[in-house]
Structures are given as C-alpha cells and as structure tokens.
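User: Second chain of the day. Same drill as before.
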Amino acid sequence: MAPILLLGTGDRAKAALAAVRKRPYTWIPVGFLDDDPAMHGKDVDGVPVLGAIDLVYELPDAGLVACDPGLRDRVLLPEERWVTP
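Assistant: Same format as last time:
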C-alpha cells in the first residue's frame, strides 16, 4: 500500500477520494493539499487537509492525484509521482 495525497478539495477531489477508497489495498489517502487557508486543518470525508499545495515537495514518498487539471502543470514533479485512481 502506498500513501497518496489529493491536490484540491472540491467536488473532483471528493470523487477522486471515492475512487482511491475503492482500492484500499493499493493506496492509503493521507491527506488533501489546498491553497485555501480556510480549508487547512479541516477534513474532507474524514481525510485531513494538511496545508498548501507546495507541501508536495516536503512529502516525497506520497503519490499525487491532481484534482484540478491545472495543478499538474503548476507542480513540476517527476511523472512517477502522479497517480490516476
């Protein structure tokens, strides 16, 4: 099982979380990242919002799901970090 971070907290992120939860032996959702400070410290469907999207650089072992298409271009990381649920 691998840890996974979801980038964004909107409807697409909730749908991505549901898809991740359908494969519990593959991924463990460890948190959401979102640039809205009002979301920090809250949770989305039981998964915490850890902070801003820039935290991806501080959590190098987690796979990533971009829940907003523009985020993948903004966060320049190797292709192997990205996961499609």
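The longest strand covers residues 27-33.

User: Great, on to the next one.
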